């Protein structure tokens, strides 16, 4: 029996079949992550109404998630509350082609173009290749571990992958590396492991580089300069980040921009209010 047949996916709809494409979101742990997933689903329903949505969660009886997602998938019991679950996302996804989005994002326009753009590819991360410096750990050391001159540096808030042998091999490799996290000297993230450096090594080891076309897909507000032009009802997102103008389909409200009580969180609060029924 192969790993795919031992998948831990459990849908609340036992008649549901694997669909061709869709968006997967994860919501587990604190209440705010479930609320964020619901907000993201509302934005996807507004801007990508025909694109199926699935949530991987520890609360399959949550009525809000059940009404906003087409598939509710049970998270395996005992999963740590860090980023480890993201390394299992290929096993949880009910789709043949998946766009994964972190729950603290909001879609400001249709995201289907991302699936169309990457059709035929196995795994896609958005960012750039790096050869030295520090990113969760010593980059040169991670390159040697991967057997590659460089590794992809990317934002793990968005991933594309297909139900292919190569994609599953990448995620399986990252899961194996997770067991060596301390040994590899990688920085802790929110008290646990970070998925990005593990996936970076696995991707590089399998010859997959970062895709640089991130400015129109999903971009965080970290490094924001000036006031952003964000109007989820009008389908408009535009801002300057680290000296570069971007107009992403999904705004990733990471770190302080997702905090409900922070001054920077006002952008998220405004988008959330505009999405309420």
Overall description:
By secondary structure, the chain is α/β, with parallel strands linked by helices. It folds into 2 domains: 4-205, Spore Coat Polysaccharide Biosynthesis Protein SpsA, Chain A; 218-275, no CATH class. The protein contains 8 helices and 14 strands. Strands 3-2-1-4-9-6 form a 6-stranded mixed β-sheet. A 3-stranded mixed β-sheet has the order 5-14-10. It has a 3-stranded antiparallel β-sheet with strand order 11-12-13, covered by helices on one side. Helix 1 links the parallel strand 1 and strand 2 (53-57). Helix 5 packs across helix 7 (195-205). It starts with 18 loop residues before the first strand and ends with a helix. Mean pLDDT is 92; it is low at 1-17.
Q: Give the distance, in angstroms, between the N- and C-terminal Cα atoms.
A: 46 Å
- SS strand fraction: 15-25%
Mean pLDDT equals 92
**Helix share of residues?**
25-40%
Give the number of helices: 8
CATH fold name of the largest domain: Spore Coat Polysaccharide Biosynthesis Protein SpsA, Chain A
- Which overall shape is indicated by the principal axes computed on the Cα atoms? globular
Write out the strand line-up for the largest beta sheet, numbering strands in chain order. Answer: 3-2-1-4-9-6
The CATH superfamily title of the largest domain: Spore Coat Polysaccharide Biosynthesis Protein SpsA, Chain A
Give the total of domains: 2
Q: Give me the secondary-structure category.
A: alpha/beta
Tell me the Rg in angstroms.
18 Å
Report the sheet with the most strands, covering strand number, pairing sense and barrel closure: 6 strands, mixed
